[in-house]
Amino acid sequence: QVQLVESGGGLVQPGGSLRLSCAASGVIGSANAMGWYRQAPGKERELVAGISMGGSTKYGDSVKGRFTISRDNAKNTVDLQMDSLKPDDTAVYYCYAHFSGYYEGDYWGQGTQVTVSS
């Protein structure tokens, strides 16, 4: 059974940094794509950043230039470095992974809270 476990959320002041990490377990082989979505109260879930197995990245417009996504294919982990955080970044952040083949499907983590506040 594929499981995604996130870590690294918390409370940070505006302008600060946080690093989120996510590890996939229960699977052999690398995910085709991994990344992060977020959902703030009263808002729809939105893409934060995604990264392919080959390293191609995409970012949501609101985080471009501030967030950096990276992954380790061998370990099936994905990290999100968040700098210059703003109060509008406050949300629950969800890790996702898409697998093909035997594990075909989209998988989600349980979510980790990020709060940006003074």
Written as H for each helix and E for each strand, in order along the chain, the element string is: EEEEEEEEEEE
Shape descriptor reads globular
- The residue ranges in which pLDDT falls below 50 over 5 or more consecutive positions are none
Helix/sheet category: mainly beta
Distance between the termini: 40 Å
Structural features, described:
The chain is mainly beta. Helix content is 0%, strand content 53%. The chain has strands at residues 3-7, 10-12, 18-25, 33-39, 46-52, 57-59, 67-72, 77-82, 91-99, 105-108, 112-116. The protein is globular. The mean pLDDT is 95.
Element layout with pairings:
Blueprint: E1 3-7, E2 10-12, E3 18-25, E4 33-39, E5 46-52, E6 57-59, E7 67-72, E8 77-82, E9 91-99, E10 105-108, E11 112-116
Parallel strand pairs: 2-11
Antiparallel strand pairs: 1-3, 3-8, 4-5, 4-9, 5-6, 7-8, 9-10, 9-11
